[in-house]
DNA sequence: CTGAAAGCGCTTACAG
DNA sequence: CTGAAAGCGCTTACAG
C-alpha cells in the first residue's frame, strides 16, 4: 500500500538507482531526469522508508537515552534539552528508564544488542556505571549527563558543583552569615562531596570553618531538609543560614523554619541548589544555585551526534557552569 | 563485525531458515538440531538485528509519542506510565516534542511518513488536533491522552474532570464553605469547562449558586492564582474557599492568602487539581483532586499496543477516575 | 524436519 | 549520465 522507490522509478521511467541518486544528491544526474523524478516524488508524496534506508546504510539515525526515572522534578529539563538537539539533527530519540528494575535493564540490554540505536545518552541509573562503561568499551558511543559527580572513563557533561557551592558560600558570607548549616545529598554521590567541599572551603578560607555537626546528610527530599532544621533547632544549635544541596530539601528547611517562627532571611538565610521552577514559588522565594540542566542535555546530545557524524568526542568532560539566582530567601529585594 | 544469522547458521551447520525457526519458535525443528543452534546462539552471544527483523516483518515494534513539552510538571508521570508499559511489552518508545514549533512538527511529520513507528501515543500539542485526526484517518493507529477534554474522533484516555470537580465541591460543602472562589484554566479547554460545570452545578444543587464574579479565568500558572486572590481581596469580595483548576495556581492562591494575613483553612479553605508532589509541600499542604496521570499514560500505551497486536481499540474513551486527596488546606488534621 | 529462493525497501560499488 | 546486480540481515512461502 505505501508507495516505494520502485513505484517512483517505474512512474518516472528510470531505475531505482537513479531515484536513489536524486533522493540523496549523490552522483551526477541529468537535470531533466532529476526534475522528472522529483516531480514524481512530490506527486506521489513519496518518502523513503526509514527502516530500509537504515538497514542499507548500516545505521539507525536513532539515539537511545537511558534515565533512572522520568518523574524526578529536573529530568524534564535534561530530556527537553536532549530532544531539542536530537530532533533538529533529524535523529530520533528512543527512551528507556529503569523504573521497573532489573527487568527494565534486561529490556534495555536487549535493545542495545539488537542495535536499535547508534549511540547512547545516559543519566546514570544508580549502580549501572560499570555496565555503561562496558558498553562504551565494546564500541557503543556513549555520552553521560553526569549528575552525580562520577567523572567516568568516557565522555560526559557535567556542571561546576564545587564552584556553584562556592558561589553560594560567597553570597552568604557577603550577606554577613557566619554560621551556616549544610543539608547535603547522599554522601556516596560525587556531587555531594563536591558541593560540600566547595562550600566548606570557602567558609574556611574566610576564617569560619564549618563544624562537623553543622553538616547534616540528607537524601534530596523535602522531608530531609525539614527534619534536619527541626532537629538542629531542637538541639539549640545556632545558625544563621542554610545551604541545602537541592531545592526540594531547601523548601523543607524553609517550612521547618517557618513552623519554628524563624524569619527568613532576617534570622536565617536559605540557599538551594538546582533552581527549579519551585524555587520561585516558595515562601519566600528561594535563592538557588542554578544547574544548567537543559544545556547539559543539549550539550550531551550535540557531542554524541557530532561523534556519530565523525567528529571526535571531547576528551575531558564538557563542563557547563552553574550560576547563582538570588531571591528573597537571602534578602534580595 | 557484529555477528549475524549467517554466522550462526554456518557454525551450526544449518540454513538461515532453520536458525530463524528456532529463534522464533515457528515450525517444527528437530530437538537435537534446535539444541545445537541454541548452543551456538548463546555461545556467540547472537542477538538478531532489530532493523533487519523489522524490515522483513513490515513493522518496527516501536511506538511514537508526541507531547507538547517535557518540562511541564505533570508530563513526567504520563511519560513514565507509557514507558513502563511500552518497555514491558518489548516495544521501544520514540519521543517527540513540538518544543521548537513548526520545525518540530515538520520533523515529526517526516518520521511519520518514513514509517519510523507502528503507532502513536499523543498528549496533544495545542492546535494539532486536526493533523492528528488526519493521521488517524489515514490509518496510523493513534491513542490520545486527553488532558484537555477534547473527546476527539479517535481512541483516547481521559479522566473525570466533572466528577473530580464535584468531589471538590462536595468536600468544601461538607466543610461548611458556602462562598467559594474558582480560579479556572483557560476557557478554551474542555477540561476547564468540565471542571467549572461540575463544581458550579454541585454548589447550585446545594442551593448556593456560584456568582459569575467568583469565577476567575486563569492560565494554570502560580501567578494567575496569586493575582486572582489578591484582586478579589482588594475588591473586598467575600469568600471562604478557593477551588483552583490546578495545583500551581492553588499554590499561588495560598501565597496571596498568606500575604494578606488570611488563615488557611480557618478563614479560607483551598483545593487544587492534579495532586502533584508539590501539593504535599505547600504551606499548609494542599487538598487536591488527583489526576491519575501515570495510569492514563499506561492505559493509553496498553490500548495502543493491544491494538497493534490485533485487539480492537476501545471505542468510547477510556475513563480513569479522579480521587480526592485531603490535606490540611481544607482542615485535615 | 530442512533448505533454496524470493522478498522487505533501500544503497552502493561496478560497468558501461 | 544511467542501470543491473549484489548486499544490508532478517522472514516466509514453497518444495521436498
Automatic annotation (TrEMBL), chains A, B:
Keywords for this protein: DNA-binding, Transcription, Transcription regulation
What the entry lists under Gene3D superfamilies is as follows: 3.40.50.2300, lambda repressor-like DNA-binding domains (1.10.260.40)
Q: What GO molecular function annotation could you give as one example from this UniProt entry?
A: DNA-binding transcription factor activity
Which ranges carry the HTH cro/C1-type domain? 3-47
Residues of the HTH lacI-type domain: 3-57
Q: Does the keyword Transcription apply?
A: yes
| Designated name of the protein | Transcriptional regulator, LacI family
